[in-house]
Amino acid sequence: MSPATFKRKLQKHDTGFQQQVDLARKHVAFDLYQFKGFSKEEVADYRRFNDAANFRRAFKRWTGSTPNLIREMFRTR
After folding, report:
1. N or C: which end of the chain has fewer CB within 10 A?
2. pLDDT one-digit tens code per residue, 24-37
3. pTM of the model
4. Which residues contact 54 (CB under 8 A, 6 or more apart)?
5. What SS3 class is residue 13?
C-alpha cells in the first residue's frame, strides 16, 4: 500500500498515523500498570524513554491523566 493510500484510509476513519501510534503506546502502558504492576520508572524504561519525566509528559498527552492516577485506579480494583 502506498503512503498516500494509507493516509487516505486513516483519514476516512478520522484518525492519523501518530494518533494510532499514541493509542498503541497508551494501551501498552495500561497493560504494564494493570497486569504487571510496573512503576512509572519501569514503564518508562520498558518503553525506552530517556527518563520518567519524558514518559510522564507523553502519558499525560495520551490520556489526559498522570501515570500515578492511572496506576492508583488499577491498584484499587
Report:
1. C
2. 999 999 999 888 88
3. 0.78
4. 44
5. coil
